[in-house]
Automatic annotation (TrEMBL), chain A:
The keyword ATP-binding does not apply. This is Glycosyltransferase. Gene3D superfamilies: Glycogen Phosphorylase B. Residues 298-393 form the Erythromycin biosynthesis protein CIII-like C-terminal domain. It comes from the Bacteria. Keywords: Glycosyltransferase, Transferase. It holds the Pfam family EryCIII-like_C. The lineage of its organism: Bacteria, Pseudomonadati, Pseudomonadota, Alphaproteobacteria, Rhodobacterales.
UniProtKB/TrEMBL annotation, chain B:
PROSITE patterns: HTH_GNTR. It holds the Pfam family GntR. SUPFAM superfamilies: GntR ligand-binding domain-like, Winged helix' DNA-binding domain. Keywords: DNA-binding, Transcription, Transcription regulation. InterPro entries: GntR_C (IPR011711), TF_FadR/GntR_C (IPR008920), Tscrpt_reg_HTH_GntR (IPR000524), WH-like_DNA-bd_sf (IPR036388), WH_DNA-bd_sf (IPR036390). Residues 300-319 are annotated as: Disordered. This is GntR family transcriptional regulator. It comes from Albidovulum litorale. Gene3D superfamilies: GntR ligand-binding domain-like (1.20.120.530), Winged helix-like DNA-binding domain superfamily/Winged helix DNA-binding domain (1.10.10.10). SMART domains: FCD (SM00895), HTH_GNTR (SM00345). The keyword Transcription regulation applies. Signal peptide: none annotated.
Length: 438, 319
């Protein structure tokens, strides 16, 4: 019996990247490959539940106490209310610090694990490069599952800026402030790369495009008109990467009728129970049925209105398929799922590329944007109402759905990854440089 | 705290609960097209009505008193000769309003529409019900151990397996008792029920992912584990597991899993059944342990780039 290529998928420790990779891994398996997962310490169980083998990078120190998260949330809750530019120093730079520290800690165990696994290819869905992946000597494929802004171009607004495509005046200001704040950790990261034989990256960059192949989770309806076109031999745009779940049967509500609105801000957003409580007060008066993802914190809620159902986990793609509106934080996976099922988004971004996606939703007429905290009940009501009643937007989204679904992004991703693994068997890494990244 | 379900030594339950169950037993007999003289096996009725054998026995005794059922010491219960199942039950039945209210109360507690402690007045206002109906509904819930009386006019809801932590405790409880239910000498498999379950599980597995019914999975999962509970030779193990599975069947207690895990769990059930039907009980018990361990939700509670994932609070476990 012939054994297909072993593909080691290494997503960052966030649900968006993880579940995006699960969809790809299932398509890889269908093609006869053997997908396995490498996960960060503590981020376990997600892939095993989908039937995949997990390899855990060892914990650097003792298990993380719960107070770590409480401190994290207490510290950053106010920062999530700031504009993207004001988040640079308060949230983005400290987060890069933590990301680089994780990469440094992971290097030795990751290198040892890859030596043991000897995969035919590695799939990296992350925002930072791990030298161990290049040192493994096999092809590696980068998945860009954040917004398209992650890959710079003179025509694309700066990553994490949330700036409009036609507001170039502020682009440079943002970039200068970003590079200044992130400079020290970037310098530290380049030294780390150098120690492991990798060339330094340009200012603000923490992950280079793969010389083998790169997959961008950017449906055509959202794409920017790049000055430097990406070489299709090395870059593939995916029309979403949506995994299949069991169908969702909409539960009976104690009361209420009308459109179905699904609300999920990801696991980070679920920690902000005070914000969700504020939302629920408004939902109670709105003529719709609401499904709200509250993660592990259902016990934080009381007197839940009859038109609202809370749950700790939803099979999100199947729920979005049934929804009339999706209120989310702008995570790229969530946004792509909304687009895939032709559902309008109301994006209330917290941080990172959520700002970019919220802006892009408005620019492309695929959704609405609302500040996560600075809103009145009337404003939230109006935003939901207008998203539900915008016939033009609904038509655009339905047209887009009919384009995205037949493209089968997960299958295309799997095809490209298997091709890269095959290339690796016959030649060494090609050398490329990203146009416009200089 | 769950009300003790002390098997054959438990004191009789209040009459209204038995009336309700008696009606369900007659419904089962009617649905199965049973005629006068037909045998009424306790185990079968317990499985069909999703209760333990103790209340079934009490309900059958009630039907015997009504002349609808006959009992012979060595042959068990049979439908009485000349009985007509249409409109046969003369005893006043439980008010459907009370049963419906009880169901709504427990559903709304699971949805966190009701607090852990509620007053009678609060419930009267919420459901526009009179005091008598509300008290009867609470009485029904108390019989099932779902609420207990608190000082004043208040009632407190019991712990349900409806949060990540309580579901983890539920799995620990089952890991202790379910394999023991199999390995304690005297386990008896209901082969007819097992065969019917097998057919239903195979039919579910034949569905494609986009039609795989999560609710149907949940129903079959409960039936499978109830089959093990019912087969236990130790009455207290049997009753404790059956009572716990009834809690797992309540609204809000469902453990959500993805389509892959649903399929895998169903295959694990079938594998366990293979060994039970071949009288390889020890192997079945080992497979059951593995099945329960794999069913534990290990997803982190929260994750975000730049922050170590937040694990589910877990108690120390053995190896």
């Amino acid at each position: 019996m012939s054994i297909g290529p072993t593909i080691a998928l290494f997503p960052e420790a966030s649900f968006g990247a993880a579940l995006n990779c699960v969809g790809i891994a299932r398509a890889l398996k269908a093609r006869g490959a053997r997908p396995v997962f490498i996960c960060h310490a503590g981020f376990s169980g997600v892939f095993a539940e989908y039937g995949f083998q997990e390899y855990h990078l060892p914990l650097a120190d003792a298990p993380v106490p719960e107070t770590y998260w409480q401190d994290f949330i207490s510290r950053h809750q106010p920062h999530f209310n700031l504009d993207p530019a004001d988040q640079i120093e308060t949230y983005v730079a400290p987060t890069w610090d933590a990301i680089v520290e994780t990469a440094e800690q992971a290097e030795a165990p990751l290198f040892a694990l890859l030596q043991r696994l000897r995969p035919d290819a590695v799939v990296l869905d992350n925002v930072v490069m791990f030298p161990a992946i290049v040192r493994a000597g096999c092809p590696w494929v980068r998945v860009i599952s954040c917004a398209e802004t992650e890959l710079p171009d003179p025509n694309v607004p700066p990553y994490l800026s949330g700036l409009p495509a036609d507001d170039r005046l502020h682009w440079q200001t943002f970039v200068e402030r970003y590079n200044s704040a992130v400079g020290p950790v970037h310098h530290r990261y380049n030294k780390f790369r150098s120690r492991h034989g990798l060339p330094p990256l340009d200012q603000g960059q923490f992950l280079e495009p793969s010389p083998w192949h790169n997959l961008l989770l950017a449906p055509s309806v959202l794409r920017y008109d790049r000055q430097h076109q990406l070489d299709p031999a090395r870059f593939t745009f995916l029309e979403g990467c949506v995994r299949q779940e069991a169908p969702y049967q909409v539960p009976e509500f104690a009361a209420g009728e009308g459109p179905l609105i699904y609300v999920s801000f990801g696991s980070l957003g679920a920690l902000d129970t005070e914000l969700i409580k504020r939302l629920i007060v408004v939902f109670a008066e709105f003529p719709a049925r609401f499904l709200v993802n509250v993660g592990a914190f259902r016990d934080a809620y009381r007197a839940v209105p009859d038109n609202v159902i809370l749950d700790q986990w939803f099979p999100q793609p199947s729920v979005v398929a049934e929804a009339d509106l999706f209120i989310h934080h702008g995570g790229n996976n969530s946004f792509c799922e909304a687009l895939y099922y032709g559902v309008p988004s109301l994006i209330m971004p917290y941080c990172w590329d959520g700002h970019d996606n919220a802006r892009r939703a408005v620019e492309t007429g695929t959704g609405r944007r609302l500040h996560r905290a600075h809103w009145t009940a009337d404003e939230l009501t109006a935003a939901m109402q207008s998203a539900l009643e915008d016939r033009e937007m609904c038509g655009r989204l339905k047209d887009n759905e009919s384009r995205m679904v037949p493209e089968n992004g997960v299958d295309l991703a799997a095809e490209r990854i298997v091709e890269a693994a095959r290339q690796g068997a016959v030649k060494s890494a090609p050398l490329i440089r990203l146009p416009g990244a200089d | 705290m769950m009300q003790s379900n002390g098997g054959k030594t438990a004191s009789p339950r209040p009459r209204q609960n038995h009336l309700d169950l008696a009606r369900r037993i007659l419904d089962v007999a009617r649905e199965r097209g049973l005629g006068p003289g037909a045998h009424l096996p306790e185990q079968y009725l317990a499985t069909q009505c999703n209760v333990s054998r103790t209340p079934v026995r009490a309900a059958l005794k009630l039907l015997t008193e009504q002349g609808l059922v006959e009992h012979e010491a060595d042959q068990g219960y049979r439908l009485a000769k000349g009985v007509s199942l249409t409109g046969a039950f003369a005893e006043p039945l439980p008010d459907p309003k009370e049963a419906e209210l009880a169901a709504r109360i427990i559903r709304d507690r699971a949805a966190r529409r009701l607090d852990e402690t509620v007053t009678v007045g609060e419930v009267m206002r919420r459901y526009d019900s009179d005091r008598r109906t509300v008290l009867k509904a609470f009485g029904t819930l108390a019989e099932d151990g779902l609420v207990s009386r608190a000082p004043g006019q208040s009632w407190v809801f019991a712990n349900l397996p409806d949060s990540l932590e309580s579901q983890s405790d539920s799995l620990d409880f089952r890991l202790i008792l379910e394999p023991a239910a199999l390995t304690t000498p005297g386990f008896s498999l209901d082969h007819d029920r097992a065969a019917a379950l097998r057919r239903a599980m195979v039919a579910l597995l034949a569905e494609p992912d986009d039609r795989l019914d999560g609710n149907r999975f949940r129903q079959l999962d409960l039936e499978f584990h109830m089959l093990i509970a019912r087969g236990a030779s130790n009455r207290f193990v049997s009753d404790a597991l059956a009572a716990h599975h009834r809690l797992r069947g309540l609204p809000g207690a469902a453990v959500r899993s993805n389509v892959v895990r649903l399929r895998q769990a169903m295959l694990e059930h079938l594998h366990i059944l293979d060994h039970l039907e071949s009288d390889q009980v020890a192997v079945a018990a080992d497979l059951l342990r593995v099945h329960l361990r794999l069913s534990r939700n290990q997803r982190p509670r929260a994750a975000n780039r730049g922050v170590p994932p937040l694990a589910i609070r877990a108690k120390p476990r053995e190896g």
